[in-house]
Every structure is written in structure tokens, then in C-alpha cells.
Amino acid sequence: MESVKILVDKLDENGFRRMLNSGFRPLHKPIQNTFKKEVADIIIGKNCKFLEIKNELNETPIFSCIRNGDLAMVLHLIALGANVEEKDSEGRNVLESAFTHEKIVFVKLFHSLGFEIDKEVLKSKCKVPSSMWSELDRILKELQTKNNPVIVSPIMEQMQNILIEEVLKPDSPKGVRVLSLDGGGIRGIMSVIILKELESRLQQKLQNPNVLVAQFFNIIGGTSTGAIIALALAKGKSAFDILKLYIRFRDKVFAGKRPYDSSRLEEFLKQELGETTTLENISKFNGLKLMITTTKADIMPPQLVLLRNYDIYCETSTKSALAWFAARCSSAAPTFFDSPKQTYLDGGLMANNPCSDILVELTKFDITRQLNNQPPLPLACVLSIGTGRPPPKSTNAATVSVPQGFGDILRNGFNQITGFMSLTKMFIDQICASDGAVVDRARAMAFTKHSPFFRLSPELPTEVELDDKDDMIILDLMFAARCYLHQEEKSFEQLVTILATYAN
What we know:
Radius of gyration: 25 Å
Distance between the termini: 48 Å
Number of helices: 21
Number of domains: 3
Number of strands: 7
Helix content: 40-55%
Oligomer: single chain
Protein name: PNPLA domain-containing protein
CATH architecture of the largest domain: 3-Layer(aba) Sandwich
């Protein structure tokens, strides 16, 4: 890499064009697959305008990589800042170009990023074989198919509709809006896709392309990967900026084998959140409250610790905590990263879904206000975003029993061992649960405060590890989130309508 750095250090835009003409195309068509991302980092780090330089086919790097079917490079170019809104020489956007070049994978990718699939437009711009139209129909069908939907009782649905009507009345008091973000490692990219679509819808509804999703909430809480998203939102990053952050995160932090080098994580967090930025001064938005969860694990039983950018009565102030360190403490997943100060572990061990804990915070605010003869704060909307629900599967955990002698061990030993393993996994999953009863409790608490409650958590296409780096898995997560939003259109539009009434 040192030789590449020396070469690039002397490179200007004209030199880059000459390099393209000579046949060396490190961004447009990299020949060295192993280090192509590192080379791209060095080149774009020198001059981001290299992303706009066109090859002999009049293609920028992202269009060239789409044509060549290089998913890894397309994702990396997006993370480095490639303009996905640009058109190719024929006036086609990235999705239309992907369809023209028969790259259905990229159709899924760019639809996940918000580009609409319009068959009539594609027919007018793209000449492709019939097999591509069949593939497109399969994608469109997948977008409309509900897989394992969450069943909410009719009485809860009725209450939700009543509360939505109440909060949308013109004379309804302006209330607090809550955003809760689950933990889940790289699966957090699903949360970001949901936030990106929410931000895009609000921009369209308000006819203002500059609004950011964080502007519409008063308190944002997050655990682990959700903590990183929460802090990035508060810092003023757009949802698309955070998506690019996630793609960079998996390459830079999940490098090598676990346990991962914690210094890589810390360096990344410092770079994205600021090395000296504290919780108190990270927020770009006036009055935005932040709550980050972590687990104090040097005592027994372990304790849930809430790192806040505000003070609350009878609680130790954490406002001066460094933002990157708060994210580090919240994301110190055991066996993935070591414990900061040998004290803190991942917040997901205590509150992987922090929504109930945020609502308890609001109750504490109300108690303090009541002691000062002030009315409680009205609650207008609670949005809880998950990182995906695992697909249901059978288990033999219920068959575990104590062996009745050596003969029983010989006959059923294997089943007993696998049963114990399933039981152990079931306990771990239950400790870190984000759905089911955890959501039911949060919904009940929100309803008690007369607020509608929105839970958005797509079904995972497959079991996904917290540190999965596979490009196709990342794409599948993004597309599954997009499919989910199509299927939950009615609820999602209600959410957008409520939040839009709070535009500044």
C-alpha cells in the first residue's frame, strides 16, 4: 500500500485521466480484487473528485462497476461518497442502468436506497431479454408478500387508531416524540434503511430536501449499534450518511477474526463522532435529549447504566462523558470486543430494546414536574425501530432431561447435548430479546400515556451474525427492510403524518 500512497500523492485529475487511458482503472474496473477497497480509500482520500471522472465509455466509477457486476466495489464507492443521483450518458439513473445491463442484484440495491421501480419507464429506457422482466416481476411480488407478520390484538389496534386520531386533532397539545433504536450489530443497517425512508418521506411531505429525521424527535435512545445511530443522528448526519458510515464500519472494524481489535472500533468512533465531543455538546438540535445504554459488569448482579446528555433528579450526571466512549461502552459485545475499563459491556445484555427504559425516563421527568407543581409532559408519538426478527425455527430445548443412568446416555446422549445447546441459546436470546413481551410492555406504557406506538422491525431473511461482512447478506438485509416498509405502508404513512405536524 505504501507504493500506492506514493503514486497517488503525486496524482491530479489530469494524471488520473491519463492513468485511465493507459488501462489502469482502480476505481472503474479494479484488477486487484484483494486490496481494491484499500486502493480506493487511498485514491478518494487524496481527491474525492476522482469519483466523478469518466472512462472511455463516458462512465463514472459507479456506473462502470454496475456494468461489471462488482457489488463489493459499488457498495464501497457509495460509502466513499459516489453520487447515486447522477445519470449515465443515456440519461438513465443507477437503477435503470443496472436493469439495462441485466444486473438484477443492483436493481434490489438501488430500490433499497429509495429508487422506485417503474415498469413503464424501464420499458421505454431499457432493452433487455424476457428473463429480466421475469426477474423484475419476482422482485415486485416479493415486495408485496407478507412473511410472518407480527400479530397485534384487535383491541390494541383499535386503541392505536383512537390515539392517532387524537394526536392529529388541530387542538391536540404538542407532545414529546420518542425514537428508540435496538441493538443488533451489522443488522442495524435495516434500522438505517427505515430511517432513510422516513427522512425521505418527511422531506417530500414538507417539500424541503434539507430536513433531517432527528429534527422530529425530542428524545432518542439507543443500544449498541442503535447507540451509534442515535449519536450520529444527534450530530446532524443524514440517514444516508449513516448508511455510508455502516458500510465503512464493517470493513474497518470487523477486520480479521473475533475478538476484534478494539482500537479499530475506538478510532472509527472518534473519527465519526469527534475525539473530544461530549454527550453534552454533540447535539446539533436544540433541546434534543440522548440516552445511551450500557451494562456495568464489574459487580453482581450487573446493572443497567444510562449515559445521558441531560441531568435528571437524583441521578449521577454523565453529560461530560465523551460521545465516542459512550458508543464504545454500549457496543462492547462479549467475545467481539473487550470491556472498556474492564467495567462496561454491551447495553444489549440489559436493554437490547431500550424503549421501555426511555419511557421510564419520561415518567421520572413527570414526577419531577409534579413535585414542582407542573403538569406532566404530553407524549405524542413513540417510534421503536428494531434490527430484524429472526425467522421462526424449531428447537429441541424442551426435550432436555437429566440422564437416567449410563444406558440412557448411550441411547440419547447426542440429543441431550444438542438439547442443552439449544436451551443455552434460548436463554441468551431471551436475555437480549428485542421483540415479543418487550415490545408489548413498551406499547402498553405508551398507550397509558395516551400516545400512539409504532414498532418497525422487519423479519430477517436468514439468521445473521452481528459481525456478518458478506456483501450479499448486507444487500439482503437492506432489501428485506425495504420490502417490510412496502408491507407496512399504512402504518408508516400514519407515522409520517404525525411527525410532519411537528415541522419547525
